[in-house]
Write a structure and sequence with these properties.
transmembrane helix, Growth Hormone, Chain: A, mainly alpha
């Protein structure tokens, strides 16, 4: 108990630090969705090539999720967080040096490997500093940063591209990683990071048992299908607003930021709402959210009014965040701290595999049909898949909590 109290005094600052890290993480990755409009013109690319650029990051990011989670459980959250920030910042800068489609694909792939360790390590960081009963809510607060990062990206990228060009933009935002690395090096020091090599070797992560768990895979499928919607919209909305709705760059930057802002605020309340009213009913919370998300997505792209379409887009993203909250909060409630990094790696692998598939498939659909409508129907179908997967999740006791190494022990 005393050991926990000593570390809990700065747990809220640590959550804030992890939050800021995710903001920079998402800023570095999502500015490409804005920059690709200029890159497309400079390199004379079609929609399918643009989809490949947007997806190349997610391919490596998805591949890195399970190894990143395993390394986090094996080595501790501190080492993985720091190295992840260093690597992704280096390749953010390198993006500005790209000279062809192939170079962009390679750089974005390596960039994704760097960012791949952060999600599991940040969730492990929560488990390092918070007791079990506080982790779901802390996780929901942390993950709201994803949407604020999505909102920040177009607000930052659009004026920077307009005034300094897309290459200089990547140079500048890549340098933020230096400040972030220093902050984590100085302040993020959970007790586990000081463990001896002998302790690390003895820290066996039961991956075979974890991967055989059906409940874990149902959560993963639910978040994979929801991730198709999330990353499809995040990747293509800037192009949609400019090409289909006729907005200029600065107007697009403003409207594209609104869903991230509204959903980020909603996420701050979503964790409380889940904890207060949907305890042991998480699957219904996620399913209802995806049902409403699909309905509002349909209303968004069929509306003739830009204002109405933007309202529907915001509501679509807000309700989609219900599944997001469940995907990252429920594992903290039902899984051992010993395997939480690996479990989050598996779940987030599903979301990031969706990030690879969704922009690519949407790009091909847009190229084949010459319209965004078919691509949005693809997202609606995936909303239905997410609902089915959510409803198939059994009660919370499906996943064993044995052998937990809790901070209160």
């Amino acid at each position: 108990m005393n050991r926990y109290i000593g570390r809990s005094q700065n747990k809220h600052f640590i959550l804030f630090l992890l939050f800021v890290g995710y903001l920079v993480d998402y800023l570095d990755r999502m500015v490409m969705s804005v920059a690709v409009v200029s890159i497309k013109e400079e390199f004379n690319l079609d929609a399918a090539a643009v989809g490949a650029i947007l997806s190349s990051f997610f391919l490596s990011y998805a591949i890195m999720q399970i190894p990143g989670g395993w390394l986090t459980d094996k080595l501790g959250s501190r080492k993985v967080l720091i190295w992840s920030i260093i690597v992704w910042s280096v390749f953010t800068v390198f993006t500005g040096f790209a000279w062809s489609l192939i170079s962009l694909l390679v750089i974005r792939f390596l960039f994704g490997l760097g960012q791949g360790g952060y999600p599991s390590a940040s969730q492990k960081g929560i488990a390092d500093y918070y007791p079990r009963d506080e982790r779901p809510k802390a996780s929901a607060y942390l993950m709201s940063s994803n949407y604020f990062g999505m909102a920040l990206a177009p607000l930052v990228a659009a004026p920077m591209i307009l005034f300094m060009g897309w290459r200089n933009m990547f140079y500048v935002i890549g340098l933020l990683g230096i400040l972030l690395t220093v902050a984590f090096w100085v302040y993020f020091k959970p007790k586990e990071s000081t463990a001896s090599n002998k302790t690390l070797k003895e820290n066996s992560v039961p991956l075979k048992e974890l991967l055989a768990n059906s409940g874990l895979w149902k959560i993963t499928v639910m978040w994979f299908a929801a991730g198709i919607v999330n990353w499809g919209l995040s990747s293509w909305i800037p192009s949609y607003l400019m090409e289909d709705r006729g907005m200029d760059l600065l107007s697009m930057g403003f409207y594209a930021a609104l869903p991230g802002l509204s959903t980020g605020v909603a996420m701050l309340f979503s964790g409380w709402l889940l904890d207060r009213f949907f305890n042991n009913l998480e699957k219904y919370y996620a399913a209802f959210g995806m049902l409403m998300s699909g309905i509002f997505l349909y209303l968004m792209f069929t509306s003739t009014s830009i204002v109405a379409a933007m309202v529907y887009l915001n509501l679509c993203m807000i309700f989609k965040s219900f599944a997001f909250t469940v995907a990252f909060a429920l594992p903290h409630k039902i899984m051992s701290k010993k395997v939480i990094g690996s479990a989050m790696g598996v779940i987030n692998m599903g979301a990031q595999a969706a990030g690879f598939i969704s922009p690519l498939v949407m790009g091909f659909i847009i190229s084949l049909t010459g319209s965004f409508n078919g691509a949005f129907w693809f997202l609606i179908v995936c909303s239905g898949i997410s609902i089915i997967a959510a409803l198939s999740i059994k009660k919370n006791n499906q996943i064993a909590q044995s052998n937990d190494v809790d901070l209160l022990a």
